[in-house]
């Protein structure tokens, strides 16, 4: 059981005691400590208290009409009841509802006071009242003045995953604290000026992340080695591992600004354009699309946009407002792929990708957790009502019938959108976004108006969504989880940092390269992925809030693995020009299809099985890509060049650098040399020629490197 689950288990027991009016003063202090230490615990408390109070209050009110008023009786006449009467239960439940509501208001007030800059209460951290002997709760009961049977106060030591110490403190059975120490109240954050330099922005990022560490009472992991960092930044920025030459150049450099220089060089590398156009093609239309969608035309549009470093709001405007056929205007393919089912997929993916909000569930009902309503979904959907897909018949050069050509056409008038409420009523919806209603005239292009409202800069949703998505790309986790469901119901982990980066991104004219540079040069991005002594609680995999006190390990995407295996085979074949790389990218897309699964639902969703499955394991053990890296018959491969080295040390070091972007440790080197020697001796004893035996032995070493977790993980 994780620490988060232990904390919620204790919170659940304390809430039960609170609603049953048997919460002691010490338990009340513990309850406040848990609730004020974690936003998830706070939300749990609010939901529990609200639900409990509402249910019991409703039950108490509904019983009034059924029960007669009893005449008062003396205490001597009251028997000891094993089960409370209906009337007594009604009064008890009413008090429980009122108590829960009162404490709810009290804790909310305390919470806001606690969050204040200077007047927050300083409660003791991890204080526990020494336990006292108490009757066995299973055998003894307490009779109140009303004759009700009451259980003794809850003892934390009775919980199966908690441990009671001699000094009275209670901890998790693994001797780890149940919760992190209470967050400290930090001074107000100074805002960045409008003309802040890149150095000032990076410094601001560092300070805000450090504030998070201080508030959570944790320390960061040590800095990553140069070998770890260079591999990480190559994979994140250009989508592949560095070649041996690129890695050696960085590792041997002694320039103090080599990290900044490398980030700038990677942003100008042609592979940057190929990588990010691939990423956004996948986000916009998925990995598998119908033959009618011109995938290359869309990626050509993105290549040109990323190559020219066009502002992000301009790119989004073109994607949302695009018109014309799929071949001549590649941007049209985004909406052409999602305008089915009354444009429900187009509505959902537009807000999710560009605005960071998930509204797909509100097509049928109001959102249960935020203020998104069914009417708002159909108001945005009505912007697409004016758009029509036209299929043009085509024939190829041989005169044979070919796949039709799709085109987006805007009609002069879109009409009214009607939707059905949960009550079965039909309601009209008119184009409206961010409180701005678009006139329904014949000369108004609804999608262009929507694109203007989204990208005008008057709302920061576009910037916040992009900053959150980019942060998640580089760290594995964004400021919210999920990254495309932002709102008051899903508070960000670092709100000041998210707001500041969004504002600076807008002021930079939506410069994507600038945003990447800010993130990659931050201190948090240069941390090791190894746990430190006191940041083991910073593990989002178990549900805890990410504090970015270390680099979270990510698995390579299928595209990153494919391109990295190409590097391990023959770095000289790396294609830097996108147009000449298209044929190889087509081969990669065909290779990827073995992992892609399409749901064929209303949202056009798809998933991949590229996540440690048997197919992936078999692919890495004996697939054609790995076999290509192990080919010793070609003179220009990594393995062929390694075998030209004269010493076993030099050979193993080169293989390690090619696969893992690091040199082997001394122990690793000695063990591998011993294994190579034993393997060679074994093969020669079985009549394998000595030269072939040596080659096969180093093939085994390279195969082991490529099949290691260290190779496939970004750490």
From TrEMBL:
Residues 1-28 form a coiled coil. Keywords: Coiled coil, Membrane, Transmembrane, Transmembrane helix. Pfam families: PSCyt2, PSD1. Residues 205-388 form the DUF1549 domain. The keyword Membrane applies. It comes from the Bacteria. It comes from Gimesia panareensis. PANTHER family: CYCLOINULO-OLIGOSACCHARIDE FRUCTANOTRANSFERASE-RELATED, F-BOX DOMAIN-CONTAINING PROTEIN. This is DUF1553 domain-containing protein. Residues 446-675 form the DUF1553 domain. The chain crosses the membrane at residues 96-114.
């Amino acid at each position: 059981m994780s620490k988060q689950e232990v904390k919620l288990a204790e919170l659940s027991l304390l809430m039960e005691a609170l609603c049953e009016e048997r919460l002691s003063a010490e338990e009340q202090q513990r309850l406040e400590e848990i609730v004020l230490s974690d936003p998830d615990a706070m939300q749990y408390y609010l939901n529990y208290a609200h639900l409990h109070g509402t249910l019991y209050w409703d039950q108490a009110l509904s019983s009034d009409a059924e029960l007669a008023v009893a005449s008062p009786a003396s205490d001597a006449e009251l028997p000891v009841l094993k089960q409370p009467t209906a009337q007594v239960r009604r009064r008890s439940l009413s008090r429980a509802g009122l108590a829960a509501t009162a404490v709810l208001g009290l804790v909310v007030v305390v919470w806001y006071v606690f969050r204040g800059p200077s007047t927050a209460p300083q409660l003791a951290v991890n204080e526990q009242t020494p336990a006292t002997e108490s009757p066995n709760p299973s055998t003894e009961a307490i009779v109140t003045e009303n004759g009700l049977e009451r259980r003794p106060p809850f003892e934390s030591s009775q919980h199966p995953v908690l441990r009671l110490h001699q000094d009275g403190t209670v901890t998790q059975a693994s001797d780890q604290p149940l919760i992190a120490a209470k967050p400290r109240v930090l001074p107000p954050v100074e805002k960045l000026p409008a003309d802040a330099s890149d150095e000032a922005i990076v410094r601001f990022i560092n300070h805000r992340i450090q504030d998070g560490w201080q508030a959570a009472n944790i320390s960061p992991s040590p800095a990553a080695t140069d070998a770890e960092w260079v591999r990480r930044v190559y994979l994140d920025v250009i989508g592949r591992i560095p070649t041996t030459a690129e890695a050696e150049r960085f590792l041997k450099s002694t320039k103090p600004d080599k990290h900044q220089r490398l980030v700038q060089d990677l942003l100008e590398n042609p592979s940057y354009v190929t990588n990010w156009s691939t990423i956004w093609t996948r986000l916009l239309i998925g990995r598998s699309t119908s033959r009618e969608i011109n995938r290359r035309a869309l990626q050509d549009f993105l290549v040109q946009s990323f190559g020219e470093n066009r502002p992000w709001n301009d790119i989004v405007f073109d994607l949302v407002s695009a018109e014309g056929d799929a071949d001549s205007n590649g941007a049209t393919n985004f909406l052409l792929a999602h305008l089915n089912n009354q444009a429900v997929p187009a509505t959902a993916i537009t807000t999710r990708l560009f605005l960071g909000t998930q509204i797909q569930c509100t097509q049928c009902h109001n959102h249960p957790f935020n203020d998104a309503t069914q009417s708002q979904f159909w108001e945005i959907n009505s912007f697409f009502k004016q758009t029509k897909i036209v299929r043009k018949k085509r024939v190829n050069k041989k005169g044979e019938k070919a796949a039709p050509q799709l085109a987006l056409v805007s009609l002069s008038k879109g009409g009214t959108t009607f939707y059905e409420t949960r009550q079965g009523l039909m309601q009209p919806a008119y184009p409206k976004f961010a409180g701005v209603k678009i006139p329904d005239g014949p000369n108004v292009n609804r999608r262009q108006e929507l694109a203007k409202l989204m990208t005008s800069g008057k709302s920061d949703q576009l910037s916040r969504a992009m900053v959150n998505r980019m942060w998640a790309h580089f760290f594995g986790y964004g400021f919210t989880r999920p990254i495309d469901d932002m709102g008051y119901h899903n508070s960000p982990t670092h709100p000041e940092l998210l707001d500041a980066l969004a504002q600076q991104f807008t002021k930079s004219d939506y410069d994507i390269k600038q945003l990447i540079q800010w993130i990659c040069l931050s201190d948090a991005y240069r941390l090791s992925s190894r746990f430190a002594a006191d940041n083991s609680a910073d593990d989002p995999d178990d549900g805890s809030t990410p504090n970015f006190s270390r680099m979270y390990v990510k698995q390579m995407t299928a595209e990153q693995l494919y391109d990295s295996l190409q590097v391990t085979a023959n770095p000289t074949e790396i294609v830097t020009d996108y147009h000449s790389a298209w044929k190889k990218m087509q081969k990669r897309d065909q290779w990827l299809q073995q992992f892609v699964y399409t749901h064929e639902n209303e949202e056009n969703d798809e998933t991949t099985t590229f996540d440690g499955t048997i197919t992936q394991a078999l692919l890495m053990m004996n697939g054609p890509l790995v076999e290509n890296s192990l080919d010793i018959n070609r003179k220009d491969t990594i393995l062929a060049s390694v075998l030209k080295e004269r010493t076993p040390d030099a050979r193993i070091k080169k293989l390690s650098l090619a696969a893992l972007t690091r040199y082997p440790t001394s122990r690793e080197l000695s063990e591998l040399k011993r294994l190579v020697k034993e393997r060679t001796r074994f093969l020669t004893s079985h009549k394998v020629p000595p030269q072939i035996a040596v080659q096969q032995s180093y093939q085994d070493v390279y195969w082991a490197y490529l099949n290691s977790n260290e190779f496939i993980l970004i750490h």
